[in-house]
Design a protein that fits this description.
With 87 residues, this protein is mainly alpha-helical. The chain has a domain of 46 residues. It contains two helices and no strands. Belongs to the complex I NDUFA1 subunit family. InterPro entries: NADH_Ub_cplx-1_asu_su-1 (IPR017384).
Length: 87
């Protein structure tokens, strides 16, 4: 039994829509990650390192090889800096 040509139009539309949606989703995910593939299975150590990278470079995916941190790195910690009275 031959395939009627009318069935190819909806099939082509559905295939095109799924392909366009998947491609756009991939482009958006990579744009949010500075052009790198998304990370999976992130542990607490990875979160700490991503926060450190954010403080160093301004991006959670950015890294730098400069051994000397910028001036503001010492004071832009996420921890509240309060003086504790010791007696």
């Amino acid at each position: 039994m031959p395939l009627p040509w009318e069935a190819l139009i909806p099939f082509g539309l559905l295939t095109t829509m799924y392909a366009a949606t998947g491609t756009l989703f991939s482009v958006v995910k990579r744009a949010q990650n500075d052009g790198k593939p998304p990370r999976y299975g992130i542990e607490s150590w990875d979160e700490m390192m991503m926060d450190r990278d954010k403080r160093l470079t301004g991006s959670r995916r950015g890294q730098q090889d400069n051994p000397i941190a910028p001036e503001g790195f010492a004071t832009n910690s996420i921890w509240a800096t309060t003086e504790v009275s010791r007696s």
